[in-house]
């Protein structure tokens, strides 16, 4: 994967502070034919989700952190489309892969989490096609004919959509599950082994509270709480001298009126702080 950022927010944070097998009987956890109307509507993507993701991606591209680290890309970038991506083990759209174009040329993507099952922008790339488009090319079909499932930065797979718009349960293309990063198509995939890996991943998702198992649900709740409260506080900056910020919001208040907010890091599923990535992205997104 060419220059995928995979959430390399260390430099951003610094800049901000100082950034096959033929077993076709393998099926999804719930057979599409047995889904009731309410559950189906929850699982299918919708325009409100997509529009929200497009807005987040556009704001992200113009954030100070991106402008400082990828200014040429950010200044030319336009977010022109978005493709729904599922977190394997969560029965609703979790991400939109927002396609970026610059001067009419494919210029990467911004992956946006839409349901608080992951940090808000887990990864982005500044060149080439989206991963969804790459999968469609390998599969020899239109990107809208596929349903995509993401396990982490390096593992993604696609199933062919059924008439109701959900995957058929048989992996058509996958990449990353053998650690190679090479695309494998249906005839070269051991569906049974891959199903076992997906089952294990879904178990981890559920143990983490229905979120990306890099984190815990409580950790992500804390992450989004800080992000949302910080954005609300920073929106008051024009009247900051008149406002009294609480000690929970600030570490330092400078005489010029600028403030240094109190930051937090996400705790991962093992109870350890997950590093500078989520922290850096929170800071970048907030500013």
Summarize this entry quickly.
It is built from nine helices and ten strands. By secondary structure, the protein is of the alpha+beta class.
Please provide a written account of the structure.
With 287 residues, the protein is of the alpha+beta class. The chain has a domain at 10-208. Helix content is 34%, strand content 22%. The chain contains nine helices and ten strands. It has helices at residues 10-17, 37-43, 47-61, 64-69, 71-76, 131-139, 191-207, 217-234, 276-286, and strands at 77-87, 93-102, 105-113, 123-125, 146-150, 156-161, 167-175, 183-185, 250-253, 259-261. Strands 4-3-2-1-5-6-7-8 form an eight-stranded mixed sheet. A hairpin with a 5-residue loop joins β6 (156-161) and β7. Residues 1-30 and 236-263 have low confidence and may be disordered.
Topology:
Elements: H1 10-17, H2 37-43, H3 47-61, H4 64-69, H5 71-76, E1 77-87, E2 93-102, E3 105-113, E4 123-125, H6 131-139, E5 146-150, E6 156-161, E7 167-175, E8 183-185, H7 191-207, H8 217-234, E9 250-253, E10 259-261, H9 276-286
Parallel strand pairs: 1-5
Antiparallel strand pairs: 1-2, 2-3, 3-4, 5-6, 6-7, 7-8, 9-10
Helix pairs in contact: 1-9, 8-9
Largest sheet: 8 strands, mixed
Output the helix-strand order.
Answer: HHHHHEEEEHEEEEHHEEH
Strand order of the largest sheet: 4-3-2-1-5-6-7-8
Total DSSP helices: 9
Estimated radius of gyration: 20 Å
> How much beta, percentage-wise?
15-25%
The structure class reads alpha+beta
Poorly predicted tracts of residues: 1-30, 236-263
Coarse shape: globular
Distance between the termini: 29 Å
Mean pLDDT: 78
> Can you give the helix content as a percent range?
25-40%
Count of DSSP strands: 10
